[in-house]
Amino acid sequence: MKDITLVVMAAGMGSRFGGLKQAESITPDGKAIIDFSVFDAKKAGFTKVVFIIREDMKEDFIRLVGSRIEKTIKTEYVMQDLSQLPKGRTKPFGTGHAILCCKDSVNEPFAIINADDYYGSNAFFEMAEHLKNAKKGEFAMTAYELSNTLSPNGTVSRGVCSVENGYLTDVTEVTKINSDMTCVIDGKDVALDAKTPVSMNLWGLTPDVFEQIEKDYQTFLKEADLSKDEFFIPTIINDMAKSGKATIKVYTNKDKWYGITYREDLPELKEAIGGYINAGLYEGI
Question: Which residues have a Cβ under 8 Å from the Cβ of 91 and sit 6 or more positions away?
């Protein structure tokens, strides 16, 4: 069986949520969202998980989460390097830099996810099948319907996707989307369609992506305002597709996405996961 890896981005500060939200307990026995994502990924055929974390959270993260995961699947930890942050900045440079930090630990096709997002089991099966057969530059992403990704407790940012013939042609970052799907784009009030495909940072990539990330990162360090700018993985992937260096197959998922952007999101998430457990979806976790 071809090895495929799950890369979990867990170095975010979680400022809106407060605390180490990646380790927040969502079940009575102390499991976090990532326990369920790893369970789903392993069941789908992923053979290793790589956690991207910060050095200052390593001890707590391993104690609260990693120690459980290590018992179920091959596990590695990568520290997101913060040495190039300018004075006064504590937030990492972004998802592109996070993925670059794991280049020495990942030599096979891989998927990336956020540690604090629940994607549903179907997404991992589709992505695993893609990655097992993926050749150089044959990327993939899972798109969710916008209405299935919103929070009633505050605004969210989403990557709005343009798709043609099953392949991604563009991603536009839209910020401050309300629960009624209204937002402001270019100074105008806009109501987005409920079925608008959006990215939740579930990408499938091949190892050749690291060469492009490294190149773009050096440009970022030279040209960006390092006090505030971020280096995002969707931008890199988007540019590779537009330049013909990659194709991005889109898998549309109609499942409900759950996350804990805000602490008030927890009750709905706990109820949903509890329902899945009671239905037998996570027997043996």
Answer: 13
